[in-house]
Amino acid sequence: MADWDLLLTDTRLATMNPALPGYGAIEGAAAIAIRDGRIAWLGKQSELPRGDALAHRSLGGCWITPALIDCHTHIVFGGDRAEEFEQRLGGASYEDIARAGGGIMSTVRATRSATADELFAAALPRVEALASEGVATVEIKSGYGLDMDTEIRMLEVARRLGDESSVDVRTTLLAAHTVPPEYKNDADGYIAFICDEILPRVAQRGLADAVDAYCESIAFSASQVATVFDKAAALGLPVKLHADQLSNCGGAALAARYKALSADHLEYTTPAGVDALSAASSVAVLLPGAFLTLSETQLPPIAAFRGKGVPMAVATDCNPGTSPICSLRTAMMLAARLFKLTPCECLAGVTREAARALGLLDDRGTLEIGKRADLALWNIGHPRDLAYWFGTPQLAERMTSGHTTRS
Ligand code: NIG
Ligand code: FE
Asked: What is the pTM of this model?
């Protein structure tokens, strides 16, 4: 029996291994060996142990990074919000539109009236657009149903996208996204419905890998979110939070109190919130597409995250309202230009730290022995190019579990 299924030689590796500095680069001819869909060996080619491989490819100096991971999306939805985009260009604010019954609620109406097949057909090209840039893992949230049937339908469609597209999908229940009309003026009643009915059903059917909520003046208070998180904890589900996006609601501290996998957005997070995330080892997920689309000017506290060692991930937040972007490379570019992340932080943010934000770091997100052989092969001169160029296809090939699934 062969030692390896596939041996790749004459490559340059950006391993993103946290034990190595920067990109964790192995240059000057590196090799990577794959067996049973996992990385069996990697290092300098001159140190390659003796072994035979079923297949061998010499890659002519091509850079390889971990395949990319989009750790925050709302990619399953009905309709779109192009009209609201025009209203916002005319001066209306996101909150104004939401309070007038538009915003998230207009997507809820379109999603409720869409069949599972329609939602799947609309989402598939978005998922494949991410894949075309080297993404192999995508997190997908519910949150445009806000009733039992539609929240479940969204999660089923998300699971089906994982089964039938070329990406691995992690699902998140976001029933606490906004208060549906059935519970107008009774947000507590809706929270009780989530805890007593939706969460147990979703958990029992294994439809969600995590639970999210939107802590904001136009959504839910910290104590309402805490009620949802208590129930999630009782059901053994990890949590994450849309926190401090439009105002300081103490979201980061709340997420930290529940040892959240991540707190996301964070434009209005205070120094105390940064300290709390640091102590809880939660990931700060930065969403520059929403920052751009909302014409936000309040920057997330990047220097404080760096200073306190809070890991930073970068994601698209792909959604029809605040972040109509199906491009993780664009999110990397925006994180560099708007948030001044270094290109190395941008790449770590869509590989290692994105894996950490999904609780998957033991399995993927870096090039290390034992991890899934999810690889992106690039036509680039240096890994910094990935945050520098935009709108430029540079993926040569994507492998998932050691097989070429995009080229
Ligand atoms: O991540 N902040 C709340 N949720 C989404 C927006 C959803 C929408 O407007 O449809 C976000 O930005
Ligand atoms: Fe979001």
From this structure: 0.98
- Closest Cα to atom 5, ligand 1: which residue? 322
Closest CA to 180 of 114, 115, 105: 105
For the stretch 308-366, pLDDT in tens is 999 999 999 999 999 999 999 999 999 999 999 999 999 999 999 999 999 999 999 99
Beta-carbon-side half-sphere exposure of residue 58 (alpha carbons within 13 Å)? 4
Distance in angstroms (rounded) separating the CA atoms of residues 190 and 213: 13
Are 331 and 320 in contact, with CB atoms under 8 Å apart?
no
Quick one: DSSP state of residue 63?
A: E
Q: What is the pLDDT of residues 378-393, one digit of tens each?
A: 999 999 999 999 999 9
Q: Read off the tokens for 359.
A: 């609780």
Fold for 68-357, please state it: TIM Barrel (3.20.20)
Amino acid at 382: H
- Interval 106-149: pLDDT, tens: 999 999 999 999 999 999 999 999 999 999 999 999 999 999 99
Of 172, 177, 179, the residue with max ligand 1 atoms within 8 A of its CB, to mutate for a pocket test, comes to: 177
Residues of the chain with CATH 3.20.20.140: 68-357
Residue limits of CATH 2.30.40.10 in the chain: 4-66+365-404
Instruction: State the pLDDT confidence band at 78, using cuts at 50, 70 and 90.
Output: very high
Residue 394, pLDDT score? 97
| CB-ligand 1 contact for 245 (6 Å cutoff) | yes
For helices 148-164 and 116-131, the axis angle rounded to 10 degrees is 40
Would you identify the CATH topology of the domain 4-66+365-404?
Answer: Urease, subunit C; domain 1 (2.30.40)
Please state, as a whole number, how many other Cβ atoms lie within 10 Å of the Cβ of residue 54. 13
Mutate to test the pocket of ligand 1, among 87, 104, 142, 266 (most ligand atoms within 8 A of CB): 104
Segment holding 232, helix H or strand E: helix 222-234
- As a whole number of angstroms, the distance between CA 129 and CA 327 comes to 7
Question: Ligand 1: does its nearest atom lie under 6 Å from the Cβ of 317?
Answer: yes
Cα separation, 231 vs 377, whole angstroms:
42
Tokens of 378: 């690039």
Q: Is 290 in the pocket of ligand 1 (CB under 6 A)?
A: yes
The percent of residues above 70 in pLDDT, for the chain, comes to 100
Would you say 167 and 137 are in contact if contact means Cβ atoms under 8 Å apart? yes
